[in-house]
Amino acid sequence: MSETATRVLARMFERMSEVIETEKDHLSELDGAIGDGDHGITMSIGFKAVNAALSTLDLDTASPSDVLSTAASGFLNAVGASTGPLYATGFRRAAQALADRDQLDLAACRDMLGAISEGIRDRGKAQRGDKTMLDVWLPAAEAATAGVASNLSKPDFWKAVENAAENGAAATATMIATKGRAARLRERSLGHADPGAVSAAALIKAIAGASCTQAE
């Protein structure tokens, strides 16, 4: 019997927290070069709070939308910095996108990734090329849309999404920051990958490995 969509999403957030713990020190080192040096710590706090909040849900009765809404509240309550509202808005948009849906087929995964990226974009008023996490989330969402349109298999779909995310994170090293604290450095931000983009790529890899594994 296949795992329910609700449990898949709960497991997805567990994996996201695990990957952030693994990358926490690296993310803070990256942030130390162009920011406050606390990005890894901030993300760790946020996703630990998400999983603490999700632990109070009855996964046998909760909906996929409930999981994403709870994650949004948990992250926002724990992280007051700019990252908190950005991810909270993304997760809330994803909750809306999955309202009344109980299957995590690739179309639902496409809609979830698209909603997260759009929520982050709308809340942060940023765009691709600003050297932010959007340089990862937007290409990943576009790859998901193209993957569904091309009728890719599940492995090929997620490979395309992960590749788009990884390439987007790497590309930020060639960009001049125009948003956030790194924007104060202008040209001096060149040569440094954006820590928010690097953490976003790690999160998307965790999503690919943990979510949307429900039988279609």
TrEMBL record:
GO terms for cellular component: cytosol. SMART domains: Dak2. GO terms for molecular function: glycerone kinase activity. It holds the Pfam family Dak2. Residues 7-209 form the DhaL domain. Keywords: Kinase, Transferase. One of its GO terms (biological process) is glycerol catabolic process. Gene3D superfamilies: 1.25.40.340. This is Dihydroxyacetone kinase DhaL subunit. It comes from Shinella granuli.
